[in-house]
Design brief:
heterodimer; A: mainly alpha; globular; B: alpha/beta; six-stranded mixed beta sheet; three-stranded antiparallel beta sheet; 9 strands
Chain lengths: 237, 240
């Protein structure tokens, strides 16, 4: 298993797919945290900036995971790998683990960038323990988001379609569901992410971070299981 | 002769077509087997089933007595060169092979060896695979198949895109591999280019194995292409 994992990490490394993820996080922090403060003197509180960072990190991680797995299926890399290591579940496991790691990296980088920016502006207005728990929450949420995205990519087998589905789900359907029923929304990936970054709401119940983590882990595990069942049975083009 | 590859009652049905219909065959070590047939006969599907890329609707395929997917060191047992069109374009040819070598637990120097073997110079191997010509892609795909020095080599239309030097090299290699005791299975339409190197011919038509014979037996006076045309016409196949 470790050799397939190393091969998959090398594949991700050589395609530099994580680079856009890092750039997305930097762009978000600069455009929403640093630029308004420097240009207009408008400062955001650290928790709000970290919540936004977590949102961008999770969606970015999902997109990267989906592009990685669906892209490998489409461009023949999965087939090439299966011709030298035909145990499909090993390849799938390696892809999911690498997507999880890549997503966690994006989340951690985003949280560190946001904290660093706030510190540089002299606006780091949270206790160290809170900063750590928010950073961990963002990292966990983005890691599980990466895993979920990778599973979606394997299920849909088309990178463009997977990206469209993830964007539509994250920016249209989930917000829409939140307006219909928040009690349902908290069991969706976005709701679980809000729990992990300790979102505060005066109107709705937000589960504690461990519960949010378990919900998101459960969703990701279910998607990974569906992907495993599909990937182990389907023909590889 | 020892049978290294066995297919038993392989049937592969897609929703609209039966690509393979109860195909059984054995391949022997030390021989070059040529798989021929008209377009849509099921040649590529047969190779894909053999190396586990397509799941058969019925039947079983084994290499050295086991399904490809359950071999302990699969890259050392079988190497396959399928469709060269689809290659990851973002990484270099060398990086592509290095990824495969890592997955197959092969030393890095094996990458340089196979690149040299297929005639891909270092400056070409360092370029992104997306910039490669069809012939260069084909060489890279063949190099990937050779990484583990496999006992069974499976090649689907390996001459596609190759220049005259590449075809000449491939012809020589087919013989070298077979003489070294390996099993070689080639699916190709390039009968004139490969016929002289072939030991046995397997003829597929409309998903069925309609003839399996030694090349000499099949030719019987005519050249292989003419003999196959006559065979397929007599078999009542489609209008060609």
């Amino acid at each position: 298993m470790t050799h397939v994992l190393r091969a998959q990490a090398r594949i991700v490394g050589t395609t530099r797919i994580a680079l856009p993820g890092g750039l997305a996080m930097a762009a978000y922090v600069i455009l929403t945290g640093l630029a308004p403060a420097v240009l207009f003197g408008q400062h955001r509180d650290t928790h709000t900036l970290l919540e936004g960072t977590a949102t961008v990190a999770v969606v970015t991680a999902m997109l990267l995971g989906a592009l990685q797995t669906a892209g490998d299926l489409q461009n023949g890399m999965s087939r090439a790998l299966l011709l030298v290591e035909p145990r499909r579940l090993r390849l799938l496991g390696a892809q999911l683990l690498v997507a999880l790691g890549m997503g966690a990296g994006v989340g951690a980088a985003g949280a560190l960038l946001a904290d660093g920016t706030q510190a540089a502006l002299g606006r780091l207005d949270l206790a160290a323990s809170t900063l750590v728990s928010l950073g961990v929450g963002t990292t966990v949420a983005a890691g599980l988001g990466g895993l979920l995205g990778a599973a979606v990519g394997l299920l849909l087998r088309n990178a463009a379609l997977a990206a469209c589905v993830i964007v539509l789900w994250s920016f249209v359907l989930e917000p829409f569901i939140s307006t219909l029923s928040y009690s349902v929304y908290i069991y969706l990936p976005a709701g679980a992410r809000e729990s992990l970054v300790q979102h505060v709401s005066a109107h709705h119940y937000i589960p504690p971070p461990p519960v949010g983590g378990l919900i998101l882990a459960g969703i990701a595990a279910a998607a990974a299981l569906a992907a495993a069942l599909t990937f182990s049975r389907q023909d590889i083009a | 002769m020892t049978a290294t590859v066995q297919l038993r009652g392989i049937t592969k049905r897609y929703p609209s077509v039966t690509a393979l219909d109860d195909v059984s065959l054995e391949l022997s070590a030390g021989l070059v087997h040529l798989l021929v047939g008209p377009n849509g006969a099921g040649k590529t599907t047969l190779l894909r089933v053999l190396v586990g890329m397509a799941r058969p609707t019925a039947g079983s395929a084994s290499i050295l007595g086991r399904p490809f997917s359950s071999l302990e060191r699969p890259a050392h047992v079988a190497g396959a060169c399928l469709d060269p069109i689809r290659l990851p374009g973002l990484r270099s040819g060398r990086q592509h092979l290095a990824c495969l070598a890592t997955a197959a637990r092969l030393p890095r120097q094996r990458v340089d060896e196979v690149l040299d073997m297929v005639g891909l110079p270092p400056q070409v191997a360092a370029r992104r695979a997306g910039t490669y010509s069809l012939g260069t892609r084909q060489r890279l795909t063949i190099a990937a198949a050779l990484l583990g020095e496999p006992q069974v080599t499976v090649l689907d239309e390996p001459t596609t895109g190759l220049d005259v030097h590449g075809v000449a090299w491939l012809r020589r290699q087919l013989r070298v591999w077979a003489d070294a005791g390996r099993t070689v299975l080639v699916a190709s339409h390039s009968l004139t280019e490969l016929a002289a190197m072939v030991d046995r011919v397997l003829v597929l038509d409309q998903g069925r194995l309609v003839r399996e014979a030694a090349r000499d037996e099949l030719e019987s006076g005519a050249d292989l292409q003419t003999a196959l045309f006559d065979l397929l016409t007599a078999n009542g196949g489609r209008q060609r």
